[in-house]
Write a structure and sequence with these properties.
Layout lengths: L1 H32 L3 H20 L1 H17 L3 H29 L1 H8 L5 H14 L2 H17 L4 H4 L1 H20 L2 H25 L11 H32 L5 H37 L2 H38 L6 H14 L3 H16 L3 H26 L1 H26 L5 H29 L3 H18 L3 H14 L2
Helix pairs in contact: 1-9, 1-12, 2-3, 2-6, 2-7, 2-11, 3-4, 3-7, 3-11, 4-7, 5-6, 6-10, 7-10, 9-10, 11-16, 11-17, 12-13, 12-14, 12-15, 13-14, 13-15, 13-18, 14-17, 15-17, 16-17, 18-19
Length: about 500
């Protein structure tokens, strides 16, 4: 457990640093572009390579890659591990350079029209140009993901954890240096450059561990096993990307700036998802897979239930922060330059309804990895499809009544349904011995945090103090109540942090 704690702490630290830089990036974007049509065009153009990458690479790729690469390392067959990795790299280079990138560049006008059917002609033309600039980044991002899979298989998380920091630093730099000369194009160029720099920062660690590189392409047993695991994951990831696409398509039919507001609120929400959910899932997946193969489902259940409870404890404050203090937070972070009070209102409306999904978004990362470890990939396809259908129906219905808030509320509800569905499948596979205890812990955590933030909010309203002081008061009350009611997760995190920073 110590190595899991340390690795998770390292990734959480990097995620927090990345989020701070990400907020700074969004502040600069808000100052320069506000909720303009130009920014809408950039967001759509960035979504296109991102969707393709998330569909083919990212977590879709990492799960089967790490499983096979780690299996060879565990069997002391490092040379075969590198033969497999080399084969996958060679195939990716050929696939992207000869097929995916050229085809998407040529078909960019049609793809943009599909992603944003409500764009005006000028915004549409800009989105097509920006898309063509950013599409070559896909080859570099694919290599970044493969390198991450290799290094994570060696239980090395440092430089892979830096990739988001590199992305944010690169985009901030290109915006500052290039905005006056090329405007919104500085964002597209920064996006492309960041993909290259993310490869460069990981090269030293990769070369240090590289056994041998094979310039071969082979449809061997490893590749067949990889493909059989990979294909259902592509479907699952495609469903997730369709959810995002549906949100943006509906938003493009609302008032101007709705896509930008959706993007700003989504970026704020992803703080909890990336910092806690992704970090914990990245570390837990190899461990859960090993426990499954060893038949140690008791420890599997123990780690999973403990992880979910810690996630609830860590992410619930995000919900209360945005429910009680969403508007002043948005004002502090974004409201300057082209981002005016109207931008704050529409972004806060989206964020308010989004905030209810904070725990579900993070927990789903862990639950889906647990299902992958249990080799229930096809079941995930079913529950993810159901979540997509619910999101689509609710998007159409709720957006008619509460506009942009209807889109984010639909996301929160469908994400919650996905969580409940995935958890019920897991309980059918393994016995959750600590289920009653976990529910009791959830209720105690919810009660103490709700009371804490409600007190801070009342003080904020009555005394008209700065909202940061109100949040600090909430935190003090939260620590006090957690100590009084002996919230286990509070003491677990406290003791771990003390052990890391003690002199």
């Amino acid at each position: 457990m110590t190595s899991i704690k340390t690795a998770t702490f390292l990734l959480i630290t990097f995620s927090i640093l990345s989020k701070i830089l990400g907020v700074l990036r969004e502040v600069i974007i808000a100052y320069l572009f506000g909720t303009s049509a130009n920014l809408d065009a950039y967001i759509i153009s960035m979504t296109i390579p991102n969707n393709i990458m998330h569909l083919i690479i990212s977590s879709t790729f990492l799960v089967p890659f790490i499983s096979i690469f780690s299996k060879h390392l565990a069997n002391n067959n490092e040379l075969q591990a590198w033969r497999f990795a080399s084969n996958i790299i060679n195939m990716c280079v050929i696939l992207f350079c000869l097929f995916i990138i050229p085809i998407t560049i040529l078909s960019a006008p049609y793809i943009v029209k599909l992603f944003a059917p409500g764009f005006k002609q000028e915004t549409y033309n800009l989105a097509v140009s920006l898309t063509r600039i950013m599409l070559p980044s896909m080859i570099f991002f694919s290599l970044v993901t493969i390198v991450q899979g290799v290094l994570n298989s060696y239980q090395y998380f440092t430089t892979p954890g830096l990739k988001s920091i590199v992305l944010n630093l690169t985009m901030i730099t290109t915006m500052i240096l290039g905005y006056r000369f090329i405007g919104i194009y500085s964002l597209a160029i920064g996006f492309l450059l960041s993909s290259i720099f993310q490869i460069l920062v990981q090269l030293p660690a990769l070369l240090k561990r590289m056994k041998r590189y094979f310039f071969n392409i082979s449809f061997d047993e490893d590749f067949i096993n990889f493909f059989n695991f990979f294909l259902p994951l592509v479907i699952i990831t495609g469903i997730n990307e369709l959810n995002i696409l549906v949100d943006k398509m509906i938003a493009s039919m609302l008032s101007e700036g709705s896509i930008s507001a959706l993007n700003y609120s989504s970026n704020l929400m992803q703080a909890s998802e990336n910092i806690f959910g992704v970090s914990l899932a990245t570390v837990l997946f190899p461990k859960l897979t090993t426990l499954k193969h060893k038949g140690n489902l008791e420890e599997f259940e123990n780690i999973l239930s403990k992880g979910l409870t810690i996630l609830f404890f860590s992410t619930l404050p995000i919900t209360f922060l945005y429910v009680f203090f969403g508007e002043p937070i948005i004002k502090l972070v974004f409201q300057r330059g082209a981002f005016n009070s109207s931008s704050t209102l529409i972004t806060n409306k989206a964020l308010f309804y989004y905030s209810f999904a904070a725990f579900f978004m993070s927990a789903n990362y862990v639950l889906l990895r647990a299902l992958y470890a249990l080799e229930k990939v096809k079941v995930v396809v079913v529950v993810a499809s159901m979540s997509l259908l619910i999101n689509l129906i609710l998007n159409i219905l709720l957006s008619k009544f509460i506009g942009i808030g209807g889109i984010t509320l639909a996301t929160s509800i469908s994400t919650g349904v996905l969580f409940l569905s995935a958890f019920s499948v897991i309980t059918n596979q393994i016995e959750i011995r600590n289920f009653n205890k976990m529910i009791k812990n959830f209720l105690r955590i919810f009660s103490t945090q709700c009371i804490s933030f409600f007190i801070g909010w009342l003080v904020y309203l009555i005394l008209k103090i700065n909202f940061i002081f109100a949040i600090f008061i909430s935190f003090i009350v939260f620590v006090f109540l957690s100590s009084i009611f002996k919230i286990e997760e509070y003491f677990w995190i406290k003791n771990f942090l003390v052990s890391k920073f003690k002199v």
